[in-house]
Amino acid sequence: MLVPRSAWAGAFLGAGGFQLFDGVVNHKVLGLHEVRYGVEILPYDLVWNGAGLVLVAVGVVLAVRARGAAVEPAPPHA
After folding, report:
1. How far is CA 59 from CA 10, 17, 64, 76, in A?
2. Is residue 76 part of a domain?
């Protein structure tokens, strides 16, 4: 069963991981493409990779919260 909190955590982790991989490996290591051409690229790289880090951080927070919610005992029935 797909739990919505875990699904959102996975979506944010996946999107952020992809963005970081693209920004570091594809843009810098392999030089496959750039975010923009003909301009100073550093600000674009910082924003691109920074946004990826934010996405990963949100995913980590959601994953930790989802895991904590999964192990909390259910409240007793009155």
Report:
1. 7, 10, 9, 31
2. no
